[in-house]
Structures are given as structure tokens and as C-alpha cells.
Amino acid sequence: AQTVTQSQPEMSVQEAETVTLSCTYDTSENNYYLFWYKQPPSRQMILVIRQEAYKQQNATENRFSVNFQKAAKSFSLKISDSQLGDTAMYFCAFRRGAQKLVFGQGTRLTINP
Amino acid sequence: DSGVTQTPKHLITATGQRVTLRCSPRSGDLSVYWYQQSLDQGLQFLIQYYNGEERAKGNILERFSAQQFPDLHSELNLSSLELGDSALYFCASSVRTSGGSETQYFGPGTRLLVL
Fold first, then answer.
1. pLDDT interval class at B101 (50, 70, 90)
2. Burial (Cβ within 10 Å: 0-12, 13-18, ≥19) of residue A85
């Protein structure tokens, strides 16, 4: 079974700083997808970024980028120029094909003014 | 707004009762997934439907059941409720991207409190 581990339960940075959230996963599959979801205080689950395992290029969405290391089974999220609105729980998730998402336990990120 | 709707937003009920949670997927999405988010278990997959058929089951209790109707909306039925069933229940629907993969978009969730 696949597992996803987020080793940082909480992080806190100052506004405009860059922050990196860590995620590791365990799978014997070669083709899969990785995601970061954001859950703000409203509790809505919002897709931040996705990465296909067959793509070597790291995904980027505006201020959000990932560092995908397939051999190391590592998938970290970098948030540049952090903003107060980035304060949220961040969940790393794994999916194989069209199957369920397997989530990590989450990292609570606080952006301080 | 993800385009996935869930009703009701909040639900307060008593132990032993039965409730129904409803989900309408994004227009054109055929797959619906149900997840439970509780404080001690995190986000757990419950069940998946695709075009009316059950496709996969996760850690869903026997007291829970679901179905997907011909108009593709889905309902999650929770019966003989216990205090531990208090959680946030999410529905997600998936859309195929041009690469043939799927992205799951989540509804706002239903907060269930069992007293």
C-alpha cells in the first residue's frame, strides 16, 4: 500500500519569505501522480499543484513550485514570496491512475505579517 | 469555487440516527469520491463511483453506504451514528485532462456533529 509522510506538523514564516514543505512517499509503482492541496480555515480543499511521475520537469504554478525527486520518492512544495493568504493546512497526496488519493497528515503553515 | 456542491453544509444529530449527505459533481465529471476528515484519522478515502457503478472501496464502515444516481449526483448514507462519526465529509469529482490523467476537485464538505 502506498503511504505519504509529511514530517513537519507545523511551520511558520514571515510574509514575503520563501518556505519549503516536505513530503515523502512510498510506492512500488512507476506511473503515478502527486498533488499538493491547501486547506485554509474555511476547510475547503483547494488544489495547489500537480506532478506526473513520468515528467522529469518540476511543476510550477505562479509562486508555487515543486522539487520532485523520483528516485528518492520526495515531493517538496516551495512557496515563494509568501502571502498572508497562504496560511493554511497543506496536504501532500499520491494517486495511481484514476484511483483514490492517499494523503499525508498535513503541515500547518502560518504566514506572519 | 470548484464546481462541486455538497449539501447540507452542517449537520447536527444524535447517536443512533441516520443521515444522508448529498453531492453534485462538476458538469461532465463521471467519477465521484467520498472522503472523511477526522481529527485523529486525517483524510481517509471511503468509496468511489464511476458513472453509477461502485468502483473502489476504502475504509468505509458497514453502517455507511453510498450510491450514484443516473444524473450523476451521489449520496452517502450514514446510519446508527456514533460519536466517532463526527467529521468533515468531502465529495470530490474528477475530470480527465488532455494527458489522460485525472484531477480531483473537492466540494466544500459537510460538517457532521454527532451528539
1. low
2. exposed
